[in-house]
Input
Amino acid sequence: MARELVQIREATRNDAAEIARVHEEAWRSTYQGIIPHLHLEKIIVHRGPAWWARALRRPGSGLMVLTFDGKPQGYVSFGAARIASSGKTGEIFELYLAPTFQGMGFGKKLFLAAKAAMEAKGRKSLVVWALAENEAACAFYGRLGGTRSATAPEHYGHVTLNRVAFVWERVGRTAR
Ligand SMILES: CC(C)(COP(=O)(O)OP(=O)(O)OC[C@H]1O[C@@H](n2cnc3c(N)ncnc32)[C@H](O)[C@@H]1OP(=O)(O)O)[C@@H](O)C(=O)NCCC(=O)NCCS
Output
């Protein structure tokens, strides 16, 4: 039977190495020149296949992959918001595509899949944090209907960057 060229599905333990590859490629291309080099390399090494295998073993880990011709080229992780006034707020923790798969509508597909999974769990609003210096990501979340609602500093050694929170209230009614 022919399979869809582009699919979104829940990640499995077998995806750990490919998710680590996507993470590495996306982080290097996105954050070079933003996050200090040594910190960036440390994060990439830390988040290798073993880290992802552990993450995938955690029960209820919200992690989906976008596959192209069967191979993961993007992922989204999500769950209950880390900072929230109630348990009803969901958060997208990470949304990354391998560089050659960016700008073709796949990020939006992953975003909507994570949002739908959170709606199904009764999460009424959604937050995503992005570095302010990551202008492309900020434009993407703005385009999908997110409202800038807060900022917070993020420290990398002596360098302080700013994070911006994008919020979707009543997620069932936005970003379709
Ligand atoms: C950010 C990212 C997930 C977006 O995914 P993408 O597949 O490139 O974006 P899409 O093609 O799905 O774009 C969806 C919409 O956002 C718009 N958009 C995307 N990037 C944009 C940009 N830099 N500026 C303005 N609009 C942008 C698109 O035009 C599109 O609008 P439309 O629905 O009206 O056509 C992806 O580019 C990526 O992985 N980037 C590197 C990692 C990263 O920054 N992740 C986010 C960390 S918080």
Observations:
- The CA atoms of residues 105 and 111 lie 10 Å apart.
- DSSP finds five helices and seven strands in the chain.
